[in-house]
Amino acid sequence: MHSPHNRRILLIDDMVSIHDDFRKILAPQAAQDRLDQLESRLFGTEPRMQVSGFELDCALQGAQGVAMAGAAAEAQRPYAVAFVDMRMPPGWDGVQTIERLWQTDSALQVVLCTAYSDYSWEEVLDRLDGHERLLVLKKPFDAIEVRQMANTLVDKWNLMRQAAWKMETLEAAVRSRTEELSQANLRLQAEMEERKQLESRMVQTEKLASIGQLAAGVAHEINNPLGFLSSNFGMLEEYLQSVFDILSVYESAEPGMAESAATLIRCTREQSKLAFLREDIPVLIAESREGMERVGKIVQSLKDFSRADTEQKWEWADLHRGIESTMNIIASDIRKSADLVREYGDLPLVECVPSQLNQVVMNLLVNAVHAAGPGRGRIVVRTGAADGEAWFEVEDAGCGIPADVLPRIFDPFFTTKAIGKGTGLGLSLSYGIVQRHQGRIEVRTALGEGSTFRVTLPVRQQLAAA
């Protein structure tokens, strides 16, 4: 809050008579005021208009006046105006005194009192850089002139002080409002970033749901004819075995047949390459059955990966099964680029959303395949458990992650891959999935040596996540 109206005046003059004159002009005696009031009460006359007085302090030399101004400023009771004589031997003259006064209190309004001077007015202005705070009073001076100057400069000082206080208040309000706006802007940016991530996750989740439904549908459509094929293939094996048994009987009965019939059978046997067929047909059947079993595994992996029947429910799942299902889906990509090594530990069942963790595994494996580069790489998948947590990690022997890129790898849409090779959402979505599982995803990397991404999950979820 701004200070009360300041009417403090400092007079610096080496003549005591001047001090007395200024007291009469600027600080009327209290006794005279009391006599005026008594006269008004006795004779019923109108009281004389009270002239507002000033608080006047006097100094005989410039050094004394500067010390008084400094003490007043430190005491938070500064002078508003100073009347300074030009010549005050043997000490500082008026110009020197004013220079030091303004060094002590730059807001002080000054009146330079002079009858004659060792300086021209131009020299005074050149030395004193404060023309807006300086007036000149020529001696001999008039009392009215002194009082008018005092009133005007005191009002000016108070108005400037009020303006400065209002400016400080306004600046403080502006700073406060600016800080509020900055904080609001930061919150808005955070909310926009969060919304952007949520929208990207929703889009990706919808895509995954569509892919899951498609995979489940494809698996179902393949599984039905595969069941017919497998059943019929078993019957075909039995029929072929019966045919081979009949042919064996014919061969054993061949010596007792007529020569013409035996010759016909031998020629037919040689033309049909029966011996070769007996060796090759079982091999073809075994290979076909192996192919059907592989198709069956792929179908089961699609079903395990999509888990369309779970509707994203939390359940106790075998992480190894999910990892294997995911590796089966992208087995061809892995075989083209790297050797896959499994280093599995003992894992308990983990409470999770299996399809979401399968997506994390796929993202990490795809990144590891891409990190392998043009040469053949090596991918290691490890698992383990300790202290109520289960973990799995994917290690590649690629080029590693640069230090300036590492802080941004989990940012949405950030990618170092070529245009069209990646969306920049894989690790971001994986991070979000792991966070929703109350887990953590960590990376160890070294340039030229590769990277390892480890996902650690609690075996049992807290109630908030369930």
UniProtKB/TrEMBL annotation:
Keywords: Coiled coil, Phosphoprotein. It is an enzyme of class 2 (transferase). Residues 8-154 form the Response regulatory domain. The modification 4-aspartylphosphate is found at residue 85. It catalyses: ATP + protein L-histidine = ADP + protein N-phospho-L-histidine. It comes from the Bacteria. Residues 217-461 form the Histidine kinase domain. Residues 167-208 form a coiled coil. One of its GO terms (molecular function) is phosphorelay sensor kinase activity. Its EC number is 2.7.13.3. It holds the Pfam family HATPase_c. This is histidine kinase.
